[in-house]
Amino acid sequence: MCKTEYAVCGSPHLLEGSLSAFLPSLSLAPRLSIPNPWIRSYSFQGKEEWEVNPHYCNTVREIYPYSNSNRLLNIVDMAIFDFLMGNMDRHHYEMFTKFGDDGFLLHLDNARGFGRHSHDEISILAPLSQCCIIKRTTLLKLQLLAEPEYQLSDVMRESLLQDPLAPVLTEPHLLALDRRLQLVLDTVGRCIDTFGEATVVANDTRQPQSPAEHRAKLGT
């Protein structure tokens, strides 16, 4: 594994690693592997269209299923997830076939996450910055995690204390989460300034039923 093109050689002998969990076999839980529309170029030969065309999202919006489902919003969620941990390697995503086109995305293969805590790779946020759309529920959660009493680094630090491999993440990586979260919110803010909140923030929230309404439905 110690090759010049892979920056994983020990210094002199210790490496950072990742822990993998395996899903059920494809015979039990069939799933599809789908190319990420914002796949990164993996050669020095040239660049992908999204890397040179700031209006690339207009093309994506015309392609099914990104044209008439929640898939594009889920892609933006995935990009935010990747940006927070610095994962530049999201070339595919997977979905369980049982749930159809509107199923959730499986965020597999995060091994390149939490690499350089001192560098924020803004290009990972291209789906958000180019499409200027985000779920209301996602935005509300991000805004909450930016509040001093619910800061993302504190929440993550406390959560990881329960892990047998604690602390898992070093302190610089935890602090990077707060910095990157603010960059996400800044990106959303610029989108809202340009297009307006009604266009940028997709209302995916549902009003909860009152107990009376719930009982009425059960009685019919």
Automatic annotation (TrEMBL):
GO cellular component, one term: Golgi apparatus
Active site: residue positions: D89
Positions with a binding annotation for ATP: S20, A21, F22, L23, E94, D109
Sorted UniProt keywords: ATP-binding, Disulfide bond, Glycoprotein, Golgi apparatus, Kinase, Manganese, Metal-binding, Nucleotide-binding, Transferase
Residues binding Mn(2+), per UniProt: D109
Entry keyword Cell membrane: no
Predominant location category: Golgi
Subcellular location: Golgi apparatus
Short name of one Pfam family: Fam20C
GO molecular function, one term: kinase activity
Cofactor(s) the protein requires to work: Mn(2+)
Keyword Endoplasmic reticulum: no
Residue stretches making up the FAM20 C-terminal domain: 1-200
Membership in a protein family: Belongs to the FAM20 family.
Protein name as annotated: FA20A Pseudokinase
Organism this protein belongs to: Tychaedon coryphoeus
